[in-house]
Amino acid sequence: MGALANQLPIGLSIAAVLLLIALGLTFTFGQMGVINMAHGEFIMAGAYTAYLLQGLTSQSFLIALPVAFAVAGAMGLLLEWALIRRFYGRPLDTLLLTWGVSLVLQQLARDLFGAPNVQVTAPGWLVGGVDVLGVRLPHNRVFIIALAVLCVVGVWLYLTRLPAGRRMRAVVQNRELAAYSGIATGRVDRFTFLLGSGLAGVAGVALTLVGPVGPSLGTFYIVDAFLVVVAGGLGQLRGAVLAAVALGFLNGYLEFWTDASLAKVLVFVAIVAFLQVRPQGMFVVKGRALV
Amino acid sequence: MTALLEVRGLRVVFDGFAAIDGLDLTVEEGELRFLIGPNGAGKTTLIDVVTGLTKPTAGSVRFDGQELVGRREHRIVRLGVGRTFQTATVFEELTVVENLDLADSFRLPLRSLLRRRRGVSDAVAAALEAADLTALADKPAGVLSHGQRQWLEIGMLLVQRPRLLLLDEPVAGMSRSERERTGELLHRIAATHTVVVVEHDMEFLRKYARKVTVLHQGRVLREGSVAEVQEDPKVREVYLGRAKGKAVT
Amino acid sequence: MTLGRVSLVVCVVLLAVAPLALSPFRLGLLAKYLCFAIVAVGIALAWGQGGMLTLGQGVFFGLGGYAMAMYLKLEEAGSAGLPDFMVWSGVEELPALWEPFGNPVFALAAVVLVPGLVAFLLGLLVFRQRVRGAYFAILSQALAAAFVILLVGQQGLTGGTNGMTNFTRFFGLDLSDPNGQRAVYAITALVLGLTFLVAKLLVRSRFGRLLVAVRDGEDRVRFLGYDPAVVKTITFTVSAVMAGLAGALFVPVVGIISPALLGIVPSLELLVGVAVGGRFVLAGAIAGAIAVNYAKTVFSEDFAEGWLYLQGGLFVLVLVFAPKGLAGVVESARLRWGRKPAEVVA
Q1: Confidence of residue A2 (pLDDT cuts 50, 70, 90)
Q2: B53, A291: Cβ pair inside 8 Å?
Q3: Is residue C345 part of a domain?
């Protein structure tokens, strides 16, 4: 029981990272039909940002969070502007296109930082942990969970409270109608990309707390993050949250009970089984668009 | 004898909005029935439910005594119910003949589907003739004009040899001459088939309709001949109140 | 003769004289490209004709490859022995899963049936629920990820990260002997020819037309009385079987099968050739697969890091400037400069 409970913060923190990554994917996918395989490289960019900044000041880890958001966000903006906007309406082609970009970015990282993994030293206040009711809560895991909660609340407030966020929801639900209503959909798209990519950068910084940083860091998380999108439903905040938590726990606990190699297969089977019940994910944007 | 199509107590609710709200409709074998009604009356939704595209919240749809609700779309087609769409959808990369041939071949076993098409079947040739597309037979359907696409779609429906045809606004967006030719085509089809047509065009309606059903807010408002329906004060009110006399005059 | 017929004859002649003109090493490389070309035919069917972007062909390639490798290992080990890697990882008794693979008929059947069955089941479950487009692509990719992790994790069964290697014989052929290698090459070329033929017949049949219709308007096809899920599942299964055959031939041709050849990245790499050559034209996909893999060999020999830039860049360039691949470029050039075609396709 104790071991089982100790798995809790680990499962939750996996879920938190997945969620940060999946948020960007689900919005670019839901809003623009873009499947961005290079999203994983924004995570990597965020992680290397933390690596480059470390040791500059005593609080460089905290500084890395907004800087990584800006760096990854700028990369996303550039990608959208230079390539992706030519591909709207061709979702499968965007997948391949961005995979090509992802290969180039990974090789670039290898040339810039070297192929071997590098380590980011966590600030002192994130080392160690506390025991609560016999459950070990490592500081770094708690921090990641808190960070994800903060980001989700931020995104939720943005979507529901700010005019810009409402414009974004309008475009997700009905792009044509939004355009006719005078919303500059192109600008909304670019901002969505910036936001989503930026969050991936933040996730990258968070990942430096639990593991080393390497050029292929993003590839380890991108597939699971896409599964979160599929299971959660396109462009759905609550779907992404629920699916990320479910997937994080499923991953964490299945690895704990069976061996890790079988766990991934079981997760895959679970998702295919889930799609038998909810083929479009947990939540669907309802519309009357037929055929 | 039972009617060919019997809709009873049909209810369709989208997100709390009842698009169809307790609708009953009976269509006898051999009828040509027009469905009219203001926007949002539930005409297209009705066709969608009959053909399996939309699942009703309650009610039953019987075709030749068999329940259609709960069956998948292609099963309903195989029972003998065919439809067209408001915006004609044909396969642009396939030729006109290939489009028709596909519509003709669904009864073939898989084994024969794996063979190459040789020549043109009688049904396809007849449909080419009826839709006046013989000259364009080997062109990709993507080059067809809007009207030609509508005819191709009707042709595809004909080679399917359904017992019941559901046409959703077949003359929408057509020129006057195209409308006339479609009307003649419809007339010929109706001589040998049971047909339900959703149509807004009043001139078209007066010229070709025999029996008309007026839908309003998801229910049947009135049923009768064109003259009866046009004179009905309730029908006038529904149309006049909404479309300011443009639709029924 | 049409241009297509002429190039077909030229290709057949080139493939036939290759064993005489190339060194055994180069011939082995060509045979490897032909294996990838077989996969490419399947991808062109599923993706080009059917619109199913399958990012998990590595799984089917691997299932075919491992089935073949298991048989070859058992044949080598003899009746009493264990495959070499099992001895190294301390396995003492032959696992039950391995037992039937000692029988060549069973192993050959498994090469076809196992990938086919996995694809059939997945296709049925996914396509019946109308999961499609990007969702399907993502699921197929997740399958590739899970498959590789499974292979690596089951060290005693699969040889783990290293996979299986050091194959010496293939159904009585000595793989270290140039004549044996030529025979393996000939078999591979033959299988490619058969695969191409089957795909061509399928594309030209009514089923092929139906497949294009499903790609362009799945929902409309239902109202013609067909179940698109059946059409898609059959096509996906055929493409998986092709990948399985290619994987099985890859084992004697290259002499190794390992998870590194099958994961997300290799599965996507299989698509590069198809995209470059032209996914809508079977011959284009084959040519693209051979050309891209040849380029990979050339670059890896002299300029290894450059290959990833080039591959990524190539992909981006093709998608931006020639979405229909080289076959599309040839086609439009022919329309512009060649004989006036009978009909101009709008």
Answers
A1: low
A2: yes
A3: no
